[in-house]
Amino acid sequence: MGLPTVLLLLLAILTPGAAFHVPPAMKALSSLRWSASSTFRRTVAKNYSVHYIQQKVDHFGFSADKTFKQRYLIADAYWKKNGGSILFYTGNEGDITWFCNNTGFMWDVADQLKAMLVFAEHRYYGESLPFGNKSFRDSRHLNFLTSEQALADFAVLIKHLKKTIPGAKNQPVIAIGGSYGGMLAAWFRMKYPHIVVGALAASAPIWHFGNLVPCGVFMEIVTKDFKRGGPNCSETIRSSWDAINRFSRTGAGLRWLSEALDLCTALTNAQDVQHLKAWLSETWINLAMVDYPYECDFLQPLPAWPIKVVCQYLKNPSVSDAQLLQNIFQALNVYYNYSGQASCLNISETTTSNLGTQGWSYQACTEMIMPFCTNGIDDMFEPHAWNLREFSDDCFKQWSVRPRPAWIITMYGGKNISSHTNIIFSNGELDPWSGGGVTKDITDTLVAITIPDGAHHLDLRARNAFDPTTVILARSLEVRHMKQWIRNFYASLRKKH
Amino acid sequence: MGLPTVLLLLLAILTPGAAFHVPPAMKALSSLRWSASSTFRRTVAKNYSVHYIQQKVDHFGFSADKTFKQRYLIADAYWKKNGGSILFYTGNEGDITWFCNNTGFMWDVADQLKAMLVFAEHRYYGESLPFGNKSFRDSRHLNFLTSEQALADFAVLIKHLKKTIPGAKNQPVIAIGGSYGGMLAAWFRMKYPHIVVGALAASAPIWHFGNLVPCGVFMEIVTKDFKRGGPNCSETIRSSWDAINRFSRTGAGLRWLSEALDLCTALTNAQDVQHLKAWLSETWINLAMVDYPYECDFLQPLPAWPIKVVCQYLKNPSVSDAQLLQNIFQALNVYYNYSGQASCLNISETTTSNLGTQGWSYQACTEMIMPFCTNGIDDMFEPHAWNLREFSDDCFKQWSVRPRPAWIITMYGGKNISSHTNIIFSNGELDPWSGGGVTKDITDTLVAITIPDGAHHLDLRARNAFDPTTVILARSLEVRHMKQWIRNFYASLRKKH
Question: What average pLDDT does this structure show over B121-129?
């Protein structure tokens, strides 16, 4: 009990120097403490084997025939060769062992689906580095970091597993992923329906591109979460920006701010203040993403329903600037110092930096162009328009690449995806990413499951005694769909023979 | 009348030095003479406008942001903004103007489908050269010649058309192609169903990969065509190989052969003889592909049902070697000298060399690995096994690349394509490529249309007074399906509004 076992994926990347980039915020590391029956799961969770497959660095070109080692994990304790299935985690932007140990849902359902669990690492993350420690050196080395190459890796890997594991050949494979991994799961089913019979895409904001959804939707949901967190909570945060701005006008004000917020490094200029505000915004965003119903470790430990706890300090937007910012400091302490261990607050960190932030930063500058904006009215943030030009220039400065914002929609269909089948899009209504997700059924087999009390892919986490009924229901619906896909697969297999 | 108006695509590439490579034989140039109502069509056929779009050289990588000009043609004489459609020719390995002028079917149905016709040139062919005259210089320059890049070009182009042509935005697009272009049409619908509502894949051997079909099937169909061409015809051709071998044992024999076959360049060694036999094989293959029911110009003019004409000279396999080869010479003259203009036979040509043979040779060495073999029993050729190793070595010698024979199946699904919808696979039973095609319905919306009297995508050619009933029927079925797709598109559009 009490040991960290589940990691949550959620990512936040600061792009320093940019006026306002709400981060492609899809990753961070969290580990949860279990209150119930976690020992068994923990043991099982560790019982996987590690494998490697040689993959082409470039599936879409033949001039360089270089290969690299992609890592993948297999857990087959519950796998049955007769009538079994393969659950395939489409790894996203991080070390695959984290995902493996922390997508408890897959471990929880392995038994009833007689499933082999496979966790495939995404290229350029974890150990799966196409050019070793040179992988991030420059845009030439990063050239093969795309969703298309990642999906091709998955396809080649599954073909390889079916060929080499006796009994796997005639089994249905289901893609599962969360966040960017959820997008990959959905896209994998769309592009390789011959390889996976269906996909569970949890908290996958596949529509957070172009102008498929309003650019303000993300921050509006963050704001809604804080409104829900307590009376005047979002208003207090909204008031904090001007308070900070007023303090920032003088050197004395900056010094006071630095002390009041207990910052590790004192603020000295306007850019530092921009940085501070971006860091604060990210903190609120991250809280919205991990607003889970049970106590958990998220970088620092967090209480159950952390936004509620934070909002206890943010009840009054009308106090003096000094008082308001002291209250903000109390709130920040919930997130950054719940354990009481932090000696100061470091505004260059909001989440762990272990997870592939470099890789994601590159992806966010190339294919994964998600527009964000705020207006300060429908949300609790300072108004910032989405500025593609500026974003593109920042990307060029950082990576020598330019974003292609229309490409993902051209490639994966945007809102026009109704000809596909067998994809579950699950979204928590508390999750800001749900704004870019599929939250209404598209067809009978492209279904949306919404979890009113759920934050970022809560459904993919292991079951917990404090799970709200809505997530329990969501998981059981998901299993029902998966069982149907498996039955259909075997029925059509029998028809063939 | 009598002017060449329609080009047939069919390609044959000799790979000199290789023991036996039945060519990726999908291209050659033919122009047909019309016996009826061709004047009107010819006029219409010429009425297109030429356009260019800047395409990324690499859709799947961001390090080089280079672009090139892709050519495309538009004919909109019959296009209606209200309730119309867009027929999109997925250009294959050749100059797009040839395809445009010679896919008469599209011109013939434009009126009833109120269709805009678009013909998109395949990158690395015609004028659409990513690196100008350096495009074929080496494998680095050729690196972006893949089917995936070509499909991405098509997708980007269609998005561009919908954005820039008033009235095009809310119209259904149907992909149409023949041969390799037919594969592209089918794959385009599979991978980009949000962009095209359906595809007509004519004579598309999408299963001529790996061991999806027996490697001998192609040459067996060629043989069957010659069996059908006349009594003892295929047997005579089968006997010719040994006759050639016996003559080839001596210098005098080689000299006799060279004279008897009226070769432009005399045979001097064993390799020349190999070359001669490969050239002969290709000639028979090409005849099988263009065994059309009406007189036409194919490089040299050809009579109607040319195999029947050829077989009039090949009635007796049991005559002396000399007599037999003199008869073969008569048969060859049907193909190479129907017009009586040829002064000698040139064994380094079987088809025009204008069409992108370099590009196809590269594609056939990378993605498009189609195994061919003969056993001399079920077919009329000398026995040759399919030897991937040898093939790969030849490719490496020629292009410094190695084939990836499993890739196309991983990418496009092989035989496991039943989850897709709205693809018509049409095949002529006389066409040797039908052996690798889809000739049985897979589902209600993945339908096969076979044309008993059809050679290589006869259905895509303009209507002709000598068309067999079966191809007329096939075309009307195709139109019926396309109309259904268009109706469905508009019905679902109305539902949305």
Answer: 97
Instruction: For A365, name the nearest residue in chain B, comparing CA atoms only.
Output: B62
Catalytic residue among A122, A456, A457, A481: A456
CA-nearest of A70, A72, A69 to A97 is: A72
pLDDT tens figures, A346-385: 988 776 544 567 899 999 999 999 999 999 999 999 999 9
Q: B270 vs B81, B128, B240, B350, B391, CA distance in Å?
A: 63, 40, 16, 20, 20
CB atoms within 10 A of CB B45: 21
Query: What are chain B's domains?
Result: 49-207+415-495 (3.40.50.1820), 214-387 (1.20.120.980)
Give the single-character DSSP code of A125: B
For B312-351, the DSSP string reads TT---TTS-HHHHHHHHHHHHHHHH-TTS--SSB-TT-SS
Chain A within 8 Å of B164 (Cβ-Cβ)?
Answer: no
Residue A300's H or E segment, with its range, is: strand A300-302
Interface test with A, best of B137, B157, B194 (most A CBs within 10 A): B194
Token pair, residue B311, equals: 């077989």
| B456 belongs to the catalytic site | yes
Instruction: Give chain B positions within 8 Å (CB) of A407.
Output: 59
Least CB–CB distance from B139: residue in A62, A146, A155? A62
Q: What is the pTM assigned to this prediction?
A: 0.91
Q: Which of B65, B148, B417 sits opposite A402 (nearest CB)?
A: B65
A85: annotated active-site residue: no
> What are the chain B neighbours of A148 within 8 Å (beta carbons)?
60
ipTM: 0.90
Q: Is the confidence at residue B338, as pLDDT, over 70?
A: yes
